[in-house]
Write a structure and sequence with these properties.
Layout: E1 5-8, E2 11-17, E3 31-35, H1 41-67, H2 84-104, H3 108-126, H4 136-151, H5 155-176, H6 180-191, H7 195-212, H8 222-234, H9 239-258, H10 288-295, H11 298-301, H12 313-324, H13 328-332, E4 339-345, E5 351-359, E6 376-379, H14 382-386, H15 389-398, H16 418-431, H17 443-454, H18 459-466, H19 473-477, H20 484-493
Antiparallel strand pairs: 1-2, 2-3, 4-5, 5-6
Helix pairs in contact: 2-3, 2-4, 2-5, 3-4, 6-7, 7-8, 7-9, 12-17
Length: 509
């Protein structure tokens, strides 16, 4: 059957699906459907083709109305005259696509037959027949395009004109896409990222525009992204930093693709060169010399408490990280109630008690974790107990403190250890003399994993301590229900070879 022709019982109907974006102009209707009032196949075919031409006009009008609502009430005389050449070229390109689809479906003979009948219809219109509401320019354009497709007469000219028209439309479409700052606003409104993430994305886009020049998202090319990568590498940025910046762009471009703002992500395959990814850039655990430097500083030997070190946090946070493997923010946000005793059964089924730290997410109290598997409990190492950590927590509990380390002040993004982390970085480099950039506060976590393995701890127990994703149930639900016995036994075996504990803080001696 010709396109859009269908049959209900013995009667033929016209049926055409309305594109999703045009349905508002038709009151939400999904289809244009009506009876052709005939049971004769040949007559229905002719009526269907005429109805198809009319529906093309209705859809074009709806598209124009949605694109420019103010034009709905404009008088026909106010409409801009149709460019015959451009209209014929566009019609030719559309017919080419339709013929290609028919060829792929094995329906080329039917397409050719329909095109010939349409050509006769357009000729009849030009000779004074019913023009179905089309303008003379539109009828002439359709006739010329159909004839060029069937006979080849003028096809090369129309094909060239269609290509130029497509390029112009693409250029207009690219210029009408948002600029990067506007795209960030749309992305942030939908994805609701942290404020610091939005700031990082804005900095990256400002850097990108500094290299490529300001241009709409649709005009950004892969060459622009490659030039940006080269610029970052030439400035001496580490490959991980380059990839981070490119990931910022990628997330925005993917968002734009998902929302039909652009067709392709120009940064999809652009990454820092693999040859530049050096192992020396990975974080390292603290070696014996670095640990001696950190825990031999005046904080531990003279009970000094630097102003930016947040009081007792300067003393306890490094020790907690070394003996729990926890992330900085996980221990910085601890509450007194997160330190408790739990009951478990030993190997002989006798009840035992162990002090544990519960590392949990609590939205009401502003406690956040990296992922679901980070919810866990960690037995408190005897070294921390010997230094007086439980007594320190009891004192905080007696004072009614909301946090164990009340002097920690959140940064402008609300991260409770954000400012403290900056202080520790300077303290580590300038005071302790640990200058290797691969060693940071996170190195304590690497130390814990390394020494836990050296002590022969099972990998599952090691992951349960640190809340690492391992592909098991812990990854989905966390490790709060992990059996306590292997954790207690594992923590009892954990030791840091060659490390000497510093003295307890003066307030607990």
């Amino acid at each position: 059957m010709p396109t859009y022709l269908t049959k209900r019982g013995a009667t033929y109907y016209f049926r055409r699906v309305i594109p999703d974006d045009l349905r508002p102009a038709f009151g939400g209707k999904r289809e244009l459907t009506f009876s052709l009032g005939t049971k004769d196949r040949a007559e229905a075919s002719k009526l269907c083709r005429a109805a198809a031409v009319q529906s093309d006009k209705e859809l074009d009008a709806a598209r124009a109305m949605i694109a420019s609502p103010s034009a709905v009430n404009a008088k026909p005389a106010d409409a801009a005259p149709i460019d015959r050449e451009a209209y014929a070229a566009a019609a030719f390109a559309a017919l080419q696509r339709k013929r290609d689809a028919a060829f792929s479906a094995g329906d080329l003979p039917a397409f050719d037959a329909e095109a010939r009948e349409n050509l006769e219809l357009y000729q009849a219109m030009l000779e004074g027949g019913d023009n179905l509401g089309l303008s003379l320019a539109q009828v002439e354009g359709m006739q010329r395009a159909t004839k060029a497709l069937l006979t080849g007469d003028g096809a090369a000219v129309l094909a060239s004109a269609a290509a130029v028209s497509r390029e112009r439309k693409q250029a207009v479409a690219k210029s009408e896409t948002p600029m990067l700052p506007e795209l960030i606003d749309k992305w942030a409104a939908e994805r609701n990222p942290e404020a610091r993430s939005v700031d990082m994305w804005r900095r990256t886009c400002a850097m990108f525009y500094g290299v490529s020049g300001e241009k709409p998202v649709g005009a950004i090319t892969k060459a622009d992204v490659l030039a940006f990568r080269s610029h970052l590498m030439a400035k001496g940025n580490a490959p991980a930093t380059v990839d981070s910046r490119l990931n910022h762009l990628r997330s925005l471009f993917r968002f734009a693709v998902e929302h039909d703002i652009i067709g392709l992500d120009p940064a999809a395959s652009v990454k820092a060169p693999p040859a530049a990814r050096r192992a020396k850039e990975a974080r390292l655990p603290f070696d014996a010399a670095a640990l001696k430097a950190v825990f031999g500083s005046a904080i531990y030997t003279k009970d000094e408490r630097p102003n930016r070190g947040a009081g007792e946090a300067a003393y306890w946070l490094p020790l907690l990280a070394l003996y729990t493997g926890a992330r900085l923010n996980e221990i910085g946000q601890l509450r007194p109630k997160d330190v408790m005793q739990e009951v478990y059964l030993d190997g002989d089924d006798r009840e035992r008690q162990a002090w544990v730290i519960r590392i949990v997410e609590d939205e009401r109290d502003g406690l956040t974790l990296k992922n679901a598997s980070s919810n866990r409990r960690v037995p408190i190492h005897q070294a921390l107990i010997d230094l007086g950590f439980l007594r320190y927590v009891d004192a905080a509990r007696d004072k009614g403190q909301a946090r164990i380390f009340p002097d920690l002040k959140p940064d402008r993004y609300g991260v409770i250890t954000g400012n403290w982390s900056k202080w520790f970085g300077l303290h580590l480099r300038q005071t302790c003399g640990v200058t290797d950039p691969r060693m940071t506060f996170h190195s304590f976590r690497h130390d814990f994993k390394h020494h836990a393995r050296a002590c022969g701890l099972d990998r599952a127990v090691n992951d349960a301590f640190t809340g690492h994703e391992s592909g098991g149930e812990g990854e989905r639900y966390g490790y709060l229900e992990y059996p306590l016995l292997p954790l207690v036994e594992g923590m009892a075996r954990y030791r840091v070879p060659g490390f000497t504990l510093p003295p307890p803080p003066a307030s607990l001696r």
